[in-house]
Automatic annotation (TrEMBL):
<protein>
    <submittedName>
        <fullName>Bifunctional diguanylate cyclase/phosphodiesterase</fullName>
    </submittedName>
</protein>
<feature type="domain" description="EAL">
    <location>
        <begin position="23"/>
        <end position="275"/>
    </location>
</feature>
Length: 277
């Protein structure tokens, strides 16, 4: 495993058709990268509309080679089970980071931090306890942590749903991610103890004019208001989209228009500026 050929990464390229061997190689390299602590975390701001003030951050894991995104390696980590130890590392690193921001910035620190949790992690017995222990260890208030789960991770109930109920009992918040793209979106709202919905970027992308997406995005904000949930619009790339979302009633947004996912040092310089302002 030491002779890492220079051209090796070519086989991972997201644009190439993936082969079984490439997946196996990536699986082995993921394991090694976790052991060597070569993953990093980026943090993307969640902002208030219309002004764009930061209210929270979402944690997004990064592989050392930026050409390979989590859409490529997370599914492999899920299939191989590596997502369980990788997910623990992500959770602990993110909470340690949040604790450091809390200490340095107090009231200016992010109000909440989202961490993506995959179905496999939710089905792991003891996951809620692990989260509770980590919150105590790092001294983070439970309601500062938002666990982001997809509809498909929880739609069949079972252990995954029990885990969410246990997390809620700890005071942790739950966000339903990529909302609207699964097969049970509305029905889930009756059973899943969610605090917020992250409206998928596919709806935001098509929101201009009298599109179907605009009608759906409008219906979704009305449902969340009626159920006292928060709605976060994902993938906001233009000022026009942000304006339309605000007119529809959205108050929380995330996307390249406001900020790309940032390394911790850039988050810190933003917080320093806010503190001095
Ligand atoms: P997600 O949870 O829906 O995360 C949002 C994705 O949208 C991120 O992609 C983010 O960089 C991207 N994004 C943000 N703003 C915009 C925008 O304005 N336009 C567009 N087109 N995209 C935008 P990323 O970081 O590549 O992550 C992809 C997916 O990989 C995530 O989707 C999530 O499902 C998974 N993932 C990422 N980090 C983690 C993690 O730490 N744990 C787990 N289990 N999954 C993760
Ligand atoms: Ca997410
Ligand atoms: Ca999402
Ligand atoms: Ca996604």
């Amino acid at each position: 495993a030491k002779d890492r050929g220079k051209g090796r990464f070519a086989i991972y390229d997201d644009t190439l058709e993936r082969t079984h061997e490439a997946d196996q190689q990536l699986g082995a390299d993921l394991r090694q990268a976790l052991a060597d602590e070569r993953f990093t975390l980026a943090y993307q701001p969640i902002v208030l509309l219309p002004g764009g003030e930061w209210i929270g951050l979402e944690t997004l894991v990064r592989w050392p080679d930026a050409r390979i995104g989590p859409d490529t390696f997370i599914p492999i980590a899920e299939r191989t089970g590596l997502i369980v130890p990788l997910g623990s590392w992500i959770l602990r690193t993110a909470l340690a980071q949040l604790a450091a921001w809390n200490t340095e910035f107090g009231a200016v620190a992010p109000h909440h931090l989202g961490v993506n949790v995959s179905a496999r992690q939710l089905r792991e017995p003891g996951f809620a306890e692990e989260v509770g222990d980590a919150l105590v260890e790092f001294g983070v208030r439970p309601n500062q942590l938002v666990v982001e789960v997809t509809e498909t991770a929880v739609f069949d109930g079972g252990v995954a749903l029990d885990t969410l109920v246990a997390l809620k009992a700890l005071g942790v918040r739950v966000a339903l991610d990529d909302f609207g793209t699964g097969h049970s979106s509305l029905g889930l709202l009756r059973t899943v103890p969610a605090d917020s919905l992250k409206v998928d970027k596919s709806f935001v992308a098509g929101i201009g004019g009298a599109s179907e997406e605009a009608v759906i995005a409008s219906a979704m904000i009305q449902i969340t208001e009626g159920l006292h949930l928060r709605a976060v619009a994902e993938g906001v790339e233009t000022a026009a989209q942000a304006d339309t979302l605000y007119e529809l009633g959205y108050r929380f947004a995330q996307g390249y228009h406001f900020s790309r996912p940032l390394p911790p040092a850039e988050v810190r310089s933003h917080l320093l500026q806010r503190q001095l302002a």
